[in-house]
Design goal:
- The protein has a seven-stranded mixed sheet with strand order 12-13-14-15-16-17-18.
- The longest helix is centred in the C-terminal third of the chain and has 18 residues.
- It is globular, with a radius of gyration of 17 Å.
- The chain is α+β, with helices and mostly antiparallel strands and 254 residues long.
- 43% of the residues are buried.
- It is built from six helices and 18 strands.
- The protein has a single domain, classed as Ribonuclease Z/Hydroxyacylglutathione hydrolase-like (Metallo-beta-lactamase, Chain A, 4-Layer Sandwich).
Length: 254
């Protein structure tokens, strides 16, 4: 059986200092009308292996026109059912990655283990920030479906996690190896191809210099080992392979 990955596109948004995410259509909306805002695209991912149907980060929890969670509708369009998801891998818990963990008062994926770095969970409660919505985490906690991990390690035979820091103190990335393929999900360490193609230190990172260095390290590994990279905040290229030539990276789309 082959391993398949699907981008679950949730839309584009502006976010200001209050951490409010407002829908933003780059074709019709004027960026000047949102002063001081960042403009981001949001897309969780679905990965199917011979053992798991997994979601990698959960988006903002936006609703489709029919009132259903948009991530649920996107999973159905990919040919699967939300109830069949048995793993939810969380790179970190900022709202644009964790809003879809729940559906109102219950888990969005009731039959899944939610894999979370313990330090990230504890920071969300002990260091109040508009980036975290602890009312969402309360629902997850009551469910008993949390699988806490610490540091770096092997979750299953084919899934490993690595504590990176960088974007936030306890950010983690995931590598999935199955059916002769490798998928890498870098969360907000490698959120879009553009951040790999040009060197810069992002002001919104907890440790911008470390995040920049990590992007380069993972770019080298991705090119050398032919990883399929999943880009959570990509504008257009949601999934791609990395090629490197004389220290310069290029993304080859799937």
């Amino acid at each position: 059986m082959t391993m398949n990955a699907f981008a679950l596109y949730e839309g584009s948004y502006s976010v200001d200092g209050s951490k409010k995410f407002l829908p933003f259509n780059p074709e019709t909306d004027d960026p000047k009308s949102r002063p001081g805002s960042l403009f981001i695209y949001v897309q969780p991912f679905l990965v199917k292996t011979n053992k798991h149907l997994m979601v990698l980060d959960t988006g903002l929890g936006q609703r489709a026109a029919n009132g259903q969670l948009l991530i649920h509708e996107n999973i159905r369009r990919a040919g699967y059912q939300p109830e069949d998801v048995n793993l939810v891998l969380m790179s970190h818990l900022h709202y644009d990655h964790s809003g879809g963990m729940t559906d109102g008062t219950q888990l969005a994926f009731p039959n899944a283990e939610y894999v979370i770095q313990r330090g990230e969970w504890e920071n969300a409660y002990s260091k109040p920030s508009a980036s975290y919505r602890t009312e969402i985490f309360d629902i997850v906690q009551r469910s008993g479906n949390i699988h806490f991990v610490e540091g770096s390690g092997q979750l299953t035979d084919d899934i490993s996690y690595e504590l990176t820091g960088g974007h936030c103190e306890f950010h983690q990335v995931f590598t999935i190896k199955n059916a002769g393929k490798t998928i890498f999900f870098g969360g907000d360490i490698l959120p879009e191809p553009e951040q790999l193609l040009r060197r810069f230190i992002a002001k919104y990172d907890f440790d911008g210099r470390k995040a920049m260095q990590l992007r380069e390290e993972y770019g080298h590994k991705a090119a050398l080992e032919h990883w399929l990279c999943l880009f959570y905040h990509a504008k257009s290229t949601a999934m791609g392979y990395v090629e490197e030539n004389e220290g310069r990276f290029k993304i080859v789309t799937v």
